[in-house]
Amino acid sequence: MDIFIPPKNISRICCIGAGYVGGPTMAVIADNCPEITVTVVDINKDRIESWNSENLKQLPVYEPGLENIIEKTRGKNLFFSTNVHEEIGLADIIFLCVNTPTKINGFGAGKASDLRWIEICAKEISTHAKGSTIIVEKSTVPVKTAEILKDILNTRLDEKSFTVLSNPEFLAEGSAINDLQNPDRVLIGGEDEASIEILSNIYTKWVDKPKIIKTNVWSSELSKLSANAFLAQRISSINSISAICEKTGANIQEVSKSIGSDNRVGHKFLKSGPGFGGSCFQKDLLSLIYLCEFYNLPEVSKYWEGVIQINNWQKKRISRLILEKLFGTLNGKKIAILGFAFKANTNDTRESPSICVCKDLIEEGAELYIHDPKVKATQIDKELTDEQYKKNESKRWHFCENIDLALQDCSAALIMTEWEEYTKIDWSEKEGLMLKPSWLFDARLVANINNLKKTNINYWRLGNKIIANKGTNY
Ligand code: NAD
Ligand code: UGA
Question: What stretches in the chain show pLDDT beneath 70?
């Protein structure tokens, strides 16, 4: 279908996928566009029930500021529903916010994106949509996915027409609401100018016009993958330097500050840590790597592979260091894990560096006592109980509601997430709970050093040479 006549009036938006992106993004659109009815649909009944829960603490996604917006908009012009077909039929614009994880089987397994959910949506839209509909790719997808969507959508030759726009999302978890309300840019890629204008007019209700970047579809799709690759690359770069700091006596925070003070580099995304986690950096890097291989660009794919390799190495070296400092054996030793989310201010654990480190420590015989202010025990169970760990006789990790329970009788504590409450721990008060000699391994550089100086706790801080106990130099 060559000519697309966009809908005259935009009164209904349907978003397929009520996850970390779909829920918050649609809440912000509904809040800023009271004249539009926004319905978020999902096949996951439990998720929709949670979004509809009276108790706002039960929302499936934890994001600062989200509860307020949901309270204002839900039931007015924001709805959550499992009626996927019906809502598709009513919509003028359909956002695709479904998952696009890495393929686990078949060709491209371990690298290529699994587009099965995108394909299912396209088929459902081609069957149930009515009239002319604007389809917006918000999920992160490999370059050329819009082509696949168009092919599927245009198989129906009855009275319907579609145009596909790429409008990738750049929100980060933990700051999603602020990122959505004050985005650095909104990217819209497409061919049909009138439809681009319609989408752009929705955003300009709260975003300044100059922030809206209009490109061709392929630039938009590739920009999203590349943006995540660049951010991940900065983290691997600073993490690689953290290891040199530990060997030489340089201090990673001082080095990071010095590098970032150059305006051309900037300070953001130069915090050294236990490696990047989250559902997207690794998946999107892998997708980019696969694309390079597909287009026969082996040098480029190797370059980006290095970013993942350093990330995996960073996690492993933390596990190895703990083993080494605890005299080469963790058998029967209790270790407190402070933080399981992949970063602070989210309940998301996908690809969290904690998962990898916890599995290593369990493998070495440790007994883990895990605390996290927002992650639920059931979620930790899902992450740690894979095939390899199911075979274990008894579960070797326990969830602790408070920090003291985790620290009680532990040989070591490990800070894996930079939750604010961990920055405030008074270690002189906690020392008595821990066994002697005790260790604090700080993979996020958040523990209060002055406070630790008052204790006999041995302290390892990522990216610092000093592994200190009382009397040695911090
Ligand atoms: P998610 O897994 O939290 O949510 C996806 C939802 O889609 C799930 O609830 C699933 O049940 C639903 N779904 C799948 N197929 C469906 C279908 N056919 N019909 C109805 N519902 C269906 O994923 P997410 O974190 O929200 O990410 C979604 C996309 O956005 C991904 O492509 C991701 O790369 C991208 N993205 C994510 C973030 C982030 O911070 N999480 C940020 C930017 C972009
Ligand atoms: C990231 C990007 O920041 C978003 O722009 C993008 O939209 C999103 O991925 C996506 O496509 O899913 P997110 O993964 O939610 O967002 O969170 P980030 O703040 O980017 O953190 C990712 C990981 O990097 C975390 O584990 C974090 O602790 C780590 N990180 C981040 C560091 O180790 N150092 C830093 O300086 C920054």
Answer: 1-2, 156-157, 386-393, 466-474
| Inter-axis angle of helices 353-363 and 298-325, nearest 10 | 50
d(CA 226, CA 53): 37
Residue 408 identity (one-letter amino acid): Q
Residue 87: alpha-carbon gap to chain centroid: 28
Query: 86 an active-site residue?
Result: no
Predicted local confidence at residue 210, as pLDDT = 98
* Beta strand 131-137 pairing with 186-189: unpaired
Of the chain, the end-to-end C-alpha distance in Å amounts to: 68
| Interatomic CA distance for residues 119 and 408, integer angstroms | 50
**Residue 231's CB: how many other CB atoms inside 10 A?**
17
Sequence-separated (6 or more) residues with CB below 8 Å from residue 157? none
Q: Tell me if 459 sits within 8 A of 450, measured CB to CB.
A: no
Q: How far is the CA of 165 from the centre of ligand 2 (A)?
A: 25
Tens of pLDDT, residues 247-305: 999 999 999 999 999 999 999 999 999 999 999 999 999 999 999 999 999 999 999 99
Query: H/E element holding 245?
Result: helix 217-248
Beta-sheet strands, E only, within 3-105: 12-16, 37-41, 78-81, 93-96
Length of the chain: 474
pLDDT at 155: 83
Q: 442 forms bridges with which residues in the sheet? A: 415, 461
The response to whether residue 172 sits with its C-beta less than 6 Å from ligand 2 reads: yes
- Give all strands (DSSP E) within 256-396, no chain letters: 334-338, 367-371
Please choose from 222, 231, 241, 265 the residue to mutate so as to test ligand 2's pocket, defined by most ligand atoms within 8 A of CB. 231
Question: Rounded to whole angstroms, how far apart are CA atoms 231 and 377?
Answer: 30
Stated pTM of the model:
0.95
Q: Which domains does the chain have, with CATH numbers?
A: 12-215 (3.40.50.720), 216-474 (3.40.50.720)
Confidence at residue 471, expressed as pLDDT on a 0 to 100 scale: 46
Tokens coding 393: 């006789």
